[in-house]
Amino acid sequence: MTAPRLTFATFSNIINGEPRCSNKTTFSVDPSTERRLWDVPVATTQDVEDAVQSANDAFKAWSTTPFEQRVSKIAQWKQLYEQYIEEFTQLLMAECGKPRSIAAGEANEILALFEHNLGLRIPEERIEDDSRVIITRHVPVGVVAAICPWNFPLVLSVGKVIPALLTGCSIIVKPSPFTPYSALKMVELAQKVFPPGVVQAIGGDELIGPALVNHPRVNKISFTGSSATGKRIMASAAATLKRVTLELGGNDPAIVYPDVDIEKTAPEVVQGCFVFSGQVCVATKRVYVHESIYELFLKAMVDAASRIEVGKADSPSTTMGPMQNKIQYEKVQELVADSQAQGYKFALTPRPIAFDKGYYLSPSIVDNPPLTARIVVEEQFGPIVPVLKWSDEADVIACANGTTSGLGASVWTADASRAERVGRQMQAGSVFLNSWAKTTPRAMLSGHKESGIGGEWGSTGILEYCNTQAMHIFK
Predict the structure, then answer these.
(1) Where is the active site (predicted)?
(2) Is residue 247 flagged as an active site residue?
(3) Are residues 401 and 353 located together in one domain of the fold?
(4) Per-residue pLDDT tens for 265-300?
(5) Which of 5, 80, 125, 148 could lock 136 by a disulfide, CB 3.0 to 4.6 Å apart?
(6) Which among 106, 109, 247, 456 is annotated as catalytic?
C-alpha cells in the first residue's frame, strides 16, 4: 500500500510525532505580491513543555540506537525528500520571494547536505601506554533547539537537523515566523521515518525562541541570525550553561587587485553582492577596488548590475526577486535614504519597480563613500553596496578586517600565491579566492569575532552536537 503524499496546503507544528494545531494562528505573506499565505499555529507554553518532554523521552532511545541504524534512517528521509523537491522549490518561491533558480538551488542543496553527512563518522581516539588505555569519544549533547532564520529556511534548518540526528541528539526546530512553511513541512516529512519526539517543530511568535533558550531541559541552542539576537541568546543560555553554536551577521569585504580580468571579474563580484537581493549572511557587503582600475571596474559593475532583472519570483525572466519581508525592506530603504541625504555619489541609483505590491528594490551602488559611512560600517543585508578605492595593500587589509564582524571575505587577483597570502590574513571564518561566497556542506561555516561562536558543516561540524568524554582504563 502506497503511503499518501504530503499536502502542501496545510501546516502544523509537530510534537511527539503528531501534528498539533492551536487556538491562535498566524501567517506569512508572499513578498512578491504581499498576498496572505497559509495559516500556521502559534505554539503555546504548554506546546513548548510537551515538545521538550517528548524530546527528552526520545533521546533516551535514539542516543543508544546504533550509529549505522541512525544513518539508515537519515538515508530513508533523504529518499522521501527526493520525491518532493519540486514542491519545496515552489514553497521557497512563495515564502521567500526567491526566483525559481535560487529556490531550486536551495531545494537541491538539501541533497548535498544529506550526502555529505551520510558519509561522516564520529571520530574516536585510543591511546595506550604502560599503565592505561585512554579512549576519547564524542557523545550526544542531548536535546537541541534549532532557531532558524528567514533567508534560507530549508537549508539552514536541515543543516542543523541532520548532524544532530547523526550524533544521537533529538532536536526541536523553531522556524522564523517570516518563513515557517518549508521547515514545518520538512519536519512533517521526517515523521514518516523517525520515532516520535526525535525531530519536532514548533513556531509561531517571538516568545517561542526565548522559551527554548531558557528551558533547563534543552541542552544546546544552534542559532543562525543577527549578532544582536545571538548575544541575547548567549547571555540567556549562560544561566543553564547550555552549549551554543551561533552563526551571526557579517560585513564581508571583497578586495580586488589591479591584475584581474575586469570584464570577467566584475559580474562575479556583482553576483556576490546581489544574489537573493543581498540577503545572504556571506554576501559581499563592501568592495575595495585598487585605484588604478577603479573607474573601469566600477563601470563594469554598474553594467552588470543594470542587467539584473528585478521581478516576481515566478517570472522566468526574473534574476532578482523582492526583499523577503517588510522590516528588512524598510531598513534597506532607510540606508539608501541616508546615503542620499549625506550627499554620497551613486554610481547606480535605485530605479522604480513597476509593481503595486511587493517588497522590490533594484540594485544600487554607492561610489567611494567615507569609511565612516553607515553604508560601509553597517551590514545592509540588501541590494545596496559601497565600492571603495584602495592603493596600499596593508591599508586595505586593515580596512577589510576593521570591523567587529568576521564571517566571510573574498580576494580577487590573477596571482594565486598573493590570493592565498592575503586570504590567510583575512579575519573571517570563510575566505573565497577569486570567487564570491559559494558555501558547501563539505566546509565548516563559522564566524570570527562577533560573527559567531563555534561552527557547523564540514567534517567536524557534527562535533558541535557532542560532548567529549575521555575514558581511562587502568591495567
Answers:
(1) 247
(2) yes
(3) yes
(4) 999 999 999 999 999 999 999 999 999 999 999 999
(5) 125
(6) 247
